[in-house]
Amino acid sequence: MTAATATPEYTEAWNDWHEQRERELAAPNGWLSITRLERLGSEPEQFDGIPGRWHHDGVAAYVTAEPGDDIAVQGTRRFESGPVAAGELVAAGDVEIEVVHRGHGYLIRVHDPSASTVRDFRGVPAFAPDPAWVLTGRFEPYAAPRSVTVGAVAEGLEHVYLTPGEIVVERDGAEHRLIAFNGKAGGLQVLFTDETSGVSTYAANRSVSVPLDARALVEGGPVTVDLNRAVNLPCAFIDFATCPLPPAANRLPFAVTAGEKIPHERR
User: Fold this and answer.
1) Could you read off the pLDDT of 118-155 as tens digits, one per residue?
2) DSSP secondary structure of 155-176
3) If both were cysteines, with which of 52, 139, 208, 264 could 230 make a disulfide (CB 3.0 to 4.6 Å apart)?
4) Containing H/E element for 186?
5) C-alpha closest to that of 61 among 75, 43, 49
6) pTM (two decimals)
7) Per-residue pLDDT at 2
8) Contact indicator for 132, 225 with CB cutoff of 8 Å
9) What phi and psi values does residue 20 have, to the nearest 5 degrees?
10) Percent of the chain surpassing pLDDT 90
11) Could you tell me which residues come within 8 angstroms of residue 153 by beta carbon, excluding any fewer than 6 positions away?
């Protein structure tokens, strides 16, 4: 199949998905609204322009507000989450502060809905949808989930994920194995690079979600990997992200001319 044989239904579904993706990116608290990142230390610290005094103890993060601080906290508030979990937001004047656990510590990110990255957003360039990049493969679960440590775009930071197994896909007569992580909304997530990385697509990483039901997650079975829905991680758009790098095994030795390209802002 080539792009010329894509059905109107497939193209329409991809366009709907792509438009929703762009709306989520540019939402008031979306990734494009992040304007600042600060790592928390073990001693309470006040960051210039950010209300409250912040620290973490390795298990949780804390903010202590003083009278007059423009933040939706009274006294001390505790934040605890897993090292790859979504952050928690707290209002602070016209912005929101996100508290997230990454690596062995915590950090805070400032979301500003009036940020220039939101105001000037022009959408995400992408390859035209091509059903040739809808690959059929299989999921092979491990006997038990394995811990995988990967690097990050943020210097000195590592991410630790549990991987339930590998996805095997075929391209040009050869099989390729991809280490998969658990997806945020069920199914699997695959971080990868390929021969377009750093050329027409973002150099560090891209990600694709792979639907999989709970039974197949345990027993394995066929999967569909639609690389037309390969997306950029936040680090492709902003400098205040801590995105993971793909496992070394997830470097595909061919050019994936599908999915999102290098953002306009990075060209």
Assistant:
1) 999 999 999 999 999 999 999 999 999 999 999 999 88
2) TT-EEEEEEEEEEEEEETTEEE
3) 208
4) none
5) 43
6) 0.89
7) 41
8) no
9) -65, -40
10) 81
11) 204, 205, 235, 241, 242, 243, 245
- Contact (CB, 8 A) for 259 and 231: yes
Phi-psi region of 200 (alpha: psi -120 to 50; beta: other; left: phi over 0): alpha
What is the identity of the amino acid at 81?
S
CB atoms within 10 A of CB 169: 20
- Asked if residues 231 and 207 have their Cβ atoms less than 8 Å apart, the reply is yes
Structure tokens given for 224: 């569909």
E strand spans, the chain: 34-39, 53-56, 61-64, 76-79, 88-92, 95-102, 105-111, 134-151, 158-171, 174-182, 188-192, 206-210, 221-226
- Collect contacts of 143-150 with beta carbons under 8 A, ≥24 apart: 148/179, 148/181, 148/247, 150/191, 150/244, 150/245, 150/246, 150/247
Residue among 79, 246, 258 at smallest CA distance from 149: 246
User: Which residues have a Cβ under 8 Å from the Cβ of 205 and sit 6 or more positions away?
Assistant: 153, 191, 192, 193, 197, 233, 235, 243, 244, 245, 246
Domain boundaries, the chain: 31-119, 123-266
